[in-house]
Sequence to fold (432 residues):
Amino acid sequence: MISSLIDYLNQSVTAYHAVLAAEAALLSKGFVKLDEKDAWKLEPGSKYYVIRSQSALAAWQMGSGDKTGVRLVGAHTDSPGLHLKPRAQYSKSGYVQLGVEVYGGPLLASWTDRDLSLAGRVILRKNGKLKVVPFKSDKVLLRVPQLAIHLNREVNEKGLKLNKQNHMPPILALESSDGSPVDSNVVEGLIADTLGVNREEIANWQLECYDTQQANTSGLNGEFLVSGRIDNLTMCHAAIQALTANDISTPQTALIALFDNEEIGSSTENGAASAFIRDIISRVVVSDGSKHDTQRALANSACISADGAHAIHPNYTEFHDPQHAIKMNQGPVIKVNANHRYATSAFTSAIFEQLCKDVDVPFQHYVHKTDLPCGSTIGPITATGLGIPVVDVGNAMLSMHSIRETAGIKDHEMMIQVLARFFTKDDLESVS
Ligand SMILES: [Zn+2]
Fold:
């Protein structure tokens, strides 16, 4: 299972690639692709998926019984990082650099002195038609070099302060290194060479930096997973694995939603605040044979929002609530916040705890330290948009939003077991 996760992390260098890799996994398990523009005829027990705007995906197995409603697992495909500006290329002090915007809230310092490359999507125009294709350069192309300590003597005492406009643009090349002029549109040239297309075919592109270092295990006993994008591709992978387990029977429709743009607030056409998942549920209800309406289906639905959780950091224990210090490889974490930055209620927590007990998996509780502002997830947005009970859970991890995060190896399998139990349990409300 871990090798499958590591493959998924390595393939999914952008949200777009995360959806492509998810699609490949679904197709291999017999899921059928649907287009939102078409009329749908859905069969009980059958398996389908939809991609919206290339970077979000919903997949589901129709319920086999006569119960309406869905059991939804939500996660997100995007991660914080550096995105290229449209007119990215400029020259300065003999270097060719690319202007970037900061997407979401990365730990900026972790992006310095890394072997970066470029990936994303390219829009090609051929015979008057637009086509979106994936782009990924396997070459190490870019670097954001730190200033030498000799020029910044107090950096270790005062901390590394990075100005997003001035200090984050990576270096791509030396200007005129062999005496010839640098390509005036080096990004377009790179795209054309990598994809084997003519420059005239390139209508537009959306590229971002990614770390070329591969995901790996680490630690004396291989107890850690180290990678970029652990938040939240591990939960995307867990959701896919739970849904595609062989020959599962789902009493209600089992649905996964992998949204884009969680890191910037979810308010996009395929983010959790969009109508994407409500649209899917409405169309499933019409076809589920129960003759119920969407409102009754939603009243019979529940959601697990799965995202990263902050493991206690041994060098910074003062940043953690001592009663809620969560640990790696000790099971899924239920995240609670009185101000509903996490959507968990006592009721949904009880249901999730029972799911863990059903499959003999331990669980933990996380509460953010009270004098620190708490982050959030797609959980409260989904609860608000659909009006259904949601539990916010995740696995313990360190260095969230670093270019290279750390998680526990054993937690992944445990989370998959619990999500699979959520999909297959006969009666979700029978909490004993
Ligand atoms: Zn996240």
The chain has a mean pLDDT of 95.
